[in-house]
Amino acid sequence: MRLPAALCRGPARRTGVPGAARRAPAHERMLQHELRHALARDQFHLVYQPICSVEDGATRSFEALLRWEHPSLGSIEPQRFIGLAEDSGLILDIGDWVFRAAADECLRLRRGSASEVRVGVNVTQMQLASRPTTQLWVRYLHDIGLPCEAMTLEITERTVSRWPERVADHLAQLADSGLRISIDDFGTGYSNLAMLAQLRPHSLKLDASLVQGLAACERSRTIAHAVVSMAHRLHMQVVAEGIELPAQARISRELGCDLGQGWWYSRPLSPAQLPRRLAAAA
Ligand code: C2E
Ligand code: MG
Ligand code: MG
């Protein structure tokens, strides 16, 4: 089942990270070289975007998003370097740092006033294929005293549709440990519905290209409505991504989405801004 890109002309895709092996052009090789040092040189940080109830706007969780501040190249978007990090294998170390930093932040927030808040991190197939990595995550959560259910792993639908059995096994083990699974950018790849039965994710994130087409395209609304019905019957929550306008928030709510994420609710925030955001929504 291929969702609406083919049906309605929507905004260009923003997300999705190419990871296929190939000979990189010179500027990518330069970036890859710089990437090797970025972790040791403390050039990464995380920002956190609220994921909110579409009913009352209250913040329920945050998505951790990676930022790379290079001293001379400036701020480099994840879409420019995550694929390079995968090609070089650096994603294992970088992704590990992301997971731990996000878990530490979640623990800080829970020890503050938000005892039930969750934090999601984006993970790639290569990370999930590595058993030591996934085992270390669970151990880390136990060590710091954060319940596994506080952390969500966001996996893009594209990744899921072509993964090997081994990855599915590791992911099932992580889910058994209590980590939550979310299918990111749903509706942009070849939606692998059998995967939903096998994997039992906790939530689906409707891709921004679908959400941003809702107001103008009846067929998009019909498809989104069908996806929401299916998700709810499978006991999954639905997050509408990329909500920029009040009309998109309203239609997402009318279609039955549970949660919304996008600039209409909030831009990604620094860690220092999070307690205030949670207090405002309380
Ligand atoms: P994603 O996981 O789908 O994250 C949502 C992206 O949409 C973020 O871009 C966010 O800043 C952006 N966004 C949120 N609301 C709006 C909106 O209303 N309008 C628009 N136009 N954009 C919005 P960002 O931070 O540039 O990340 C892009 C992608 O890079 C992410 O897409 C994710 O696939 C990947 N990524 C980010 N951080 C990580 C990470 O730590 N690890 C991995 N493996 N991938 C990451
Ligand atoms: Mg995501
Ligand atoms: Mg997404």
What is this structure's SSE topology?
Elements: H1 26-38, E1 44-53, E2 59-70, E3 74-76, H2 78-88, H3 91-111, E4 118-122, H4 125-129, H5 131-144, E5 151-156, H6 157-160, H7 165-177, E6 180-186, H8 193-199, E7 203-206, H9 208-211, H10 218-233, E8 237-240, H11 246-254, E9 259-260, H12 274-281
Parallel strand pairs: 2-4, 4-5, 5-6, 6-7, 7-8, 8-9
Antiparallel strand pairs: 1-2, 1-9, 2-3
Bound molecules: ligand C2E and magnesium ion (2 copies).
In short:
This protein is of the alpha/beta class. It has helices at 26-38, 78-88, 91-111, 125-129, 131-144, 157-160, 165-177, 193-199, 208-211, 218-233, 246-254, 274-281, and strands at 44-53, 59-70, 74-76, 118-122, 151-156, 180-186, 203-206, 237-240, 259-260.
What does this structure look like?
The structure is a single chain. This protein is an alpha/beta fold. The chain has one domain (40-281): EAL domain (TIM Barrel, Alpha-Beta Barrel). 44% of the residues lie in helices and 19% in strands. The chain is built from 12 helices and 9 strands. Strands 1-2-4-5-6-7-8-9 form an 8-stranded mixed β-barrel, surrounded by 5 helices. Bound molecules: ligand C2E and magnesium ion (2 copies). Ligand C2E is lined by residues 14-15, 17, 49, 65-66, 77-79, 82, 95, 98, 122-124, 154, 184-185, 242-244, 261-263, 268.
